[in-house]
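Our preliminary data section would be incomplete without showing what the modeling component actually yields. Below, a chain of 169 amino acids is followed by its predicted structure, encoded as tokens that our downstream tools consume directly.
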Amino acid sequence: MSRTLVWRAVLTSMLWTPLWAPMLAAQAGGAPTSTTQCNLDDGRQVYVRYNPVSGKEKPVNGKPWAPGGAPMTLFTEAQLTLGSSVIPVGAYSVYPIPAKDHWTLVVNKGVTPGAAYDEKQDIARAQMETAQVDQASAALEVAFAHVGARCTLRIYMGKAASFADFTAK
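Predicted structure:
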């Protein structure tokens, strides 16, 4: 290996290490997260990142829920609709609001880590289709089902199963 290549490798690692180190340290020390994605027919994607908390964490009925102390995060490469609201391309916080017979899904512009939920930042709110399942999930499960331009977000917690449709424009 030539001396020039070795020096290039050393300099490259010295330049990139300060940029990646904070992100890697945050990932190593933070709570584990999971991501679910929906791949649209045209190649664009919609992602939701969340903390897969255990069934021991009980959401409070009527209150916006941030599993594990952090809201779910929606990343979308496509303009979406949720109910009658339009969600532009970008990143957003997502808060499910549980209730006894139905859940509500809120999409919020506030994405600052550690910030409290601010209802004034809501850009979409829709009632979720909610049912009770026979087998309780041991931990929060979030998944997408994809059909055409529609990505159905599915949230399972305990015996509650809630669904909301995002439609790509």
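The first strand starts at residue 34 and ends at 39. Residues 4-29 have pLDDT under 50 and may be disordered. Preliminary results of this kind motivate Aim 1 of the renewal.
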